[in-house]
Design a protein that fits this description.
The chain is α+β, with helices and mostly antiparallel strands and 108 residues long. It is 36% helix and 12% strand. The strands form 2 sheets. It has a 3-stranded mixed β-sheet. Strands 3-4 form a two-stranded antiparallel sheet. Helix 2 packs across helix 3. The protein is globular and about 35 Å long. The structure holds a DNA duplex (13 and 13 nucleotides).
DNA sequence: CCCCTGACTGTCG
DNA sequence: CCGACAGCCAGGG
């Protein structure tokens, strides 16, 4: 334990937000607001965006997070769409098939 | 401490 | 569908 991992520097709030993102499974897509609300911080959607932008590259499945409109992350649409499609999520014109209200599957 | 920017969101036209 | 506005909070200069 004594390792000073990046998480060690995180505040309880940030850690909780990241925890919610990590809890996402394959084909499960939610919005920034959902993450924030689920972590106990309704309305703090911007925090999630900034947090993901900083921590992207770790164990964080950032591609499972989209905007409330189902819009993919600007600048990462191609990569994100590829990752989502690989999980069975239907992506169309930089957008997920419906509103990010939970899990997305080709059979749902 | 002030000001600007941002991987956000909902409303309005 | 898209742009403009307002509300929101945090970080960097």
């Amino acid at each position: 334990m004594g390792s000073v991992g990046a998480e060690a520097a995180l505040s309880d709030r940030d850690r909780r937000l990241l925890d919610v993102v990590r809890a996402l499974g394959e084909g499960e897509v939610v919005s920034y607001g959902d993450i924030a609300a689920d972590a106990g911080f309704p309305g703090r959607s911007r925090l999630v965006g900034r947090l993901l932008a900083v921590h992207s590259g770790t164990d964080l499945p950032w591609w499972r997070v989209v905007t409330s409109a189902g819009r993919l992350v600007p600048g990462h649409e191609l990569e994100q769409s590829t990752l989502l499609r690989a999980e069975g999520v239907v992506v169309r014109a930089g957008r997920v098939r419906s509103a990010p209200v939970g899990r997305f599957s080709s059979s749902n």
